[in-house]
Amino acid sequence: MSERTRQFTGAAGNTGLRLLPAAPLISDLALLAATAAIATFGRGWLEFLPNPYQAPQVLSPAGYLVLFGWIAVSAIVGAYDRMLLGSGTEEYLRVARAGLITAAAVGIGCYLVKYQLSRGFFLLTFAVGIPLLCLGRFAVRRGLHAVRRRGHLQVRVLMAGSPAQIDEVSGVLTAKPWLGFSVIGAVVPTEYADRPETGTGVPIIGDSADAVLIAQASGTDTILFAGGTTSGQELRETIWALEEHGIHVAIVPSVTDISQERITVRPIGGLPVIHVGHPTWADASRLGKRVFDLVGSLALLLAFSPLLAFVAARIWIADRGPVLFSHQRIGRDGQPFACFKFRTMVPDAEAMVKDLQEQTGQSALLFKMKDDPRITKPGRWLRRYSIDEIPQLLNVVRGEMSLVGPRPQVQAEVDLYERGMERRLLVRPGMTGLWQVSGRNDLSAEEARRLDLFYVDNWSMMQDLSILARTFRAVVGSSGAY
Known about the structure:
5-stranded parallel beta sheet, 3 domains, Rossmann fold, alpha/beta
């Protein structure tokens, strides 16, 4: 063991992580107790069923069996698996699956043994219980995220791979502290082992050949293989050795920015092969999304009509200039269109762009300034809360834009496209998107590019609804807006 490796020895793993599944278990028990009370005292509300409820009764033995059986089924399907807590949709899916399995088992069991379980109790138990348990898991997750942002309940992660691959993966983990992954160091192939750290500052603490020894000595909870370290046989033997010490193993494939829905793992000749489905950008251009955009934009225009009238008057009173600003942007398939906004800058703002670019050293791609001298007084609060973009609902009605999509860009920005960025033009640009709900102008050009391409390749209607919901929070918080 090298001297550098010894500096990381003696650390203890986080024992609190082993108790983490207790939080959702306690939540489930409390919510199922509430569900039982609702089902017992509320079954009389279902008057369309025969034998209506007459008087309050205590929960029957069969009711207790149903509720505790539900907990048992949840444990069997892995709803308390520590590795699922905190992120992803699989936790919610397992909670719902446990509820449906329990409902099916109770229904079939009562039929076979001819037990007269109250149908009102049965319907209320599962109609109320399944959504309630999912909401409980959501609350537990939010609490866990808050705790992890404060540096508690961290999973100590040792990374294994080439420095470039380690930097790529560790960048994702450190950018999302609510995930709770604390990268303590890295083990790398022999040719890189003499370096003190990777390009982004992850400490290199040893050779990947000593991964098991280092993981054990450093109190690692999880060792994450980022690739480029070992053969399949060596990796298998390493996993066996780590298993003996209770250290979790995670493997990151060399496939990034692809949604879970497009990935399927199927064995071929005993090898776990990752199958990647086709990009879903074509689905984002279908009739269903267009109808959603049209109905949604018309409804929002009607709802915002008093605000639109007030803003128009405020802009005109400020300098007697035009209320709307029309600027040519590039839309789907590279077609130009006039993008509408409330005017937030002085009338000759375009003539000042070149000088400002020279002063700030920025290129035309995603050119933004925090203290832009061209912005008018009403324009500052219009931009802060993105009110200036509401007229783009007219572009949505005309079919030039969508409610959700990549941000529309000017021709000068499109001319700078490289590394696949032209794929942004496969779908209609949007009033909001992953860019806006993930940091807005605080993001770098590279991060904004990655988010736009992820949206294009992994579109889904559920993702659109999620982005719209998150947009409200981002706009109210005005994070990254200027």
